[in-house]
Amino acid sequence: MAEEEGFEEPLNEVLSRARPSWSVKELQTATKKLAQVGITTTSELVSSLSATEVSERLNERLKNAGLKAFSGETMGSFRKCMNLENVSLPKDKLASPKAQILDLRDENARTQVTNAAADQVRNSTFANFRKPVAPAKAKGQEIDSIPDLESLLMDLDSKTDVEVEKRCSAKGVVINDLEDPDRAEELIDRIERLDRMTASKLQQEYEQRGFAADEYMSRQELGPKVKDALYWEALNLRALQEVCMKQGLDLDMSESRDELFKFLA
Hints:
With 265 residues, the chain is mainly alpha-helical. It has helices at 11-18, 24-36, 42-50, 58-64, 72-81, 97-105, 107-111, 115-126, 149-170, 184-193, 199-208, 219-234, 237-246, 257-264.
């Protein structure tokens, strides 16, 4: 449906429509993260998704601010919701995906991408969500749709997400049970580092989280215990309540995550 004259859909409603599976807390987290890089309106989100300058693009701005970039799946949902998934840069800059990346890495080439292209993207989003017209094929030549750099980076993000899911699965970590699923890679990195720690270092990690360790416990005994402590520390309230119930603890369902974690120690 076309946007009413002078009306812009609120950013939180756009995010909810793009990612309907997100909880209220996840929507609030995403909105806060966008605000930290100066994106508080729908038009600002569109500009960051369609920016021709690499430094102005959404995930690049998040990374430069020391924040976790959105996954390829999430970026794809944003672009689809805004009708940006098929928008590409001018054809004369896109002879091939490889040439595109090389051109966009060059500052002079980036400055040659016209502002008109960005305006066309914004207009396609807010003027009845018109779909962009596909570029004409050269005479006697078959030209497939060539993704822009943002799409290529999204594909890389998607592959990274798949790898993180595989690593989490191998260690028994359920990403959807985490308080902050975006930090799953950070958690699995810490868990995997346990395999290279000495018994004394493992004991130190365990005790730092409020757990008591027998000084005579072996490395093989400490490893799984520290892994559990790291995992429990990262769980959301619902998942932590389930852990407590499996441990046979008598708990009050109104207790916070921090209180439940202390019960497990």
